[in-house]
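Write out the bound-state structure for adenosine-5'-diphosphate.
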Amino acid sequence: MRHPILRALLRLSRHKALLLLGGGAILLALPFVAMLGGQAWVRILDLAILYVFLALGLNIVVGFAGLLDLGYIAFYAVGAYTWALLASPHFGLHLPFWVILPIGALLACLFGVLLGAPTLRLRGDYLAIVTLGFGEIIRIFLNNLNAPVNITNGPQGITLIDPVKFGAFSFSSRTEIFGYTLVGPQKYYFLLLALCVLVVGINYRLQHSRIGRAWQAIREDEIAAKAVGIDTRNMKLLAFAMGASFGGIAGGIYAAMQGFVSPESFSLIESIMVLAMVVLGGMGHIPGVILGAVLLAVLPEALRFAVLPVQQALFGKVLVDPESLRMLIFGLALVLVMRFRPQGLWPSPERKRELLAGQEGRT
Amino acid sequence: MSEVLLEAREVSKRFGGVKALTGVSLTIRRGEIYGLIGPNGAGKTTFFNCLTGLYVPDGGGFVFDGQPLQADAPQKAAVRGIARTFQNIRLFPEMTALENVMVGRHVRTCAGVLGAMLRTRATQLEEARIRRRAEELLYYVGIADRAGDLARNLSYGDQRRLEIARALATEPRLLCLDEPAAGMNGAETEALKGLIDGIRQDGITVLLIEHDMKLVMGLCDRLAVLDYGQKICEDVPAVVQKDKRVIEAYLGEVPEDA
Ligand SMILES: Nc1ncnc2c1ncn2[C@@H]1O[C@H](COP(=O)(O)OP(=O)(O)O)[C@@H](O)[C@H]1O
Ligand SMILES: [Mg+2]
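---
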């Protein structure tokens, strides 16, 4: 009897198996390499991978079902505050992660359905505006739910949030393994990596299933989809709820990892950022979305490290502050991609094939 | 089981001042090919749209297989067993021909999110069945060799066939075709005729909107003629062809002394 995973590996072509093993080895080694540059780099890795998770969640909504959601970060916020309230001194609750995470996911899912049920008959731009409003409403609620009863602690946010813990094994402290000291962010990296592998698998399976086909059908021609008997309303709601659940899970991990949440982490620009990751990478194409998320999460941080020294060396003083440069470059990158590669940096092979066919047709 | 499959009762629909349908009643019997003809703008497509739930009629309704059709959502019509094609082809352009037909199986299959995520044995089996049936249907309509091509890259005639295959995938009892021969050349139309006849022989009732008179007259058991939203005639082709009002509708006023 061979293990099923091993069997799956053996079925792959040698080329693919090598790629998979090589990629896996690199992913496993990354946090140790990053640690050479300091814990800050490992944190950046953690955030990048958290964004991959978030982007893949949003990909279900935007990429698969074709629903423009500009308030996605609200579900992330719901997950984060669920964790913060149920595992911090704020209410004196310290529930274990396997209780909080499902609650966070379910609550986010519920919010997704609450938002989706009345609005999903709207199309395109209209849906985008309603979801945008919803995202802002959630943030404003979090900001103001400190009076008359203090639930969210308002703009100050919630501190001293419990880390993820398996029994006595805490993800925030240092652990000695084989004489090597693992720091908190490195441990979170592996947790997030495991979650990401899971969500990638779920994305793939959904995409190539009856449900995934129904979503694509709705995205391409809603009337035709209805005519073949797809309940478009329920299918859209399903996509919304699933995306929201993943957002909720990501939010929970984020709260635990940072140990602190406040409403300002969940502003509109965050929603736009995650959406940009999905679109930049190649909507609906899973490797593309991952690429987009990693690029947009890591590059600005790397820039932050590079901009000051470079300016010092070139001009002898700092002319542009890194934060504004970041937004400038982000905007420029988006415009350039939309102009020259509207299908995203790494679109699905089908779309590429089609694009080539179109070009042949023209010449 | 009664002989009547579909009964339209006084169906009316107006768009602002345009009376697209005025009290149209007709009955379609099981196993027949029923034609719906009339000049452009007569209301044929509107009739289809009311029947398949795309539009809600202002008055009247449909009885399908002995029970009233709730005409408020198109997917319900498909569930009941009414499938259609569109006058201006509506495929899923970025999906392959095979995937288009596989989508058609949606309404007769049941794998849910959990099944898809866990890829249970039942889901895998169902998925294999969906694929096999889709392949069969592509073969049936004669475009098996284009299975892997994106729908948008198919030729016009093949797209029409693909749309029929997708509609058949929903296991309809009534198949509604909206001008399936539009834009086809003579040979293609002839092949289409064979296809529609075959579909009827498989026990599926066909409602056919068509402009090609040769096709309609050669194929239909009975037909109804619409003009300005009103049914002006309903009979077998031989009688309809000679009906004075029908000739008028098609050729304009026939002078008294002509
Ligand atoms: N969605 C709509 N809005 C407004 N008018 C419509 C609409 N659909 C059809 N009509 C009008 O209804 C009439 C019948 O159209 P239609 O059913 O498409 O005719 P046919 O299919 O017989 O050519 C036409 O006058 C058309 O302009
Ligand atoms: Mg028409």
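---
Chain B touches chain A through 45 residues (CB under 8 Å).
The domain at 1-81+172-258 of chain B is CATH 3.40.50.300 (Rossmann fold).
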